[in-house]
Each structure stands twice: as structure tokens, then as C-alpha cells.
Specification:
By secondary structure, the protein is mainly alpha-helical. It has 2 helices and no strands. The mean pLDDT is 88.
Length: 65
């Protein structure tokens, strides 16, 4: 029903609709996209999938969209 894998679906949806812009400032940052995808995948899979990522240095956070 998602036309992709769940991770890809959430990634594309977060960028296309800017729903990954968690602070609503008009810019999707890498950290926001990571948080959004992780949360949405867990929610839509009812906890069966738990993607992980890491940011070692927040100064490397940059705009994606």
C-alpha cells in the first residue's frame, strides 16, 4: 500500500510533504528527518521495525530540503 518499503515511504513522505519539518521553520534538517523517519516507521509498523541512526556531532546537521 506504500508503493515502497516502509522506511523509503516515510523518508519520501517526510520530504515531499515537509512533515519532517518538526519545528515548522520551513527547512527540513537532517536531524529532523532522522527523528521523523524513526518515529513514523515505528508507528506504522506498530513497533515491529525500529530504524536507528546516529549523529556524533550536531554541527554536521545540515538542511535537506
Amino acid at each position: 500500500k506504500w508503493h515502497n518499503g516502509l522506511f523509503t515511504y516515510c523518508l519520501l513522505h517526510g520530504l515531499k510533504d515537509k512533515t519532517a519539518d518538526l519545528n515548522k521553520d520551513g527547512v527540513v534538517m537532517l536531524s529532523e528527518l532522522q527523528e521523523y523517519v524513526q518515529s513514523e516507521v515505528q508507528k506504522l509498523s506498530k513497533g515491529k521495525q525500529k530504524p536507528t541512526s546516529r549523529i556524533e556531532n550536531l554541527t554536521l546537521d545540515y538542511p535537506i530540503w
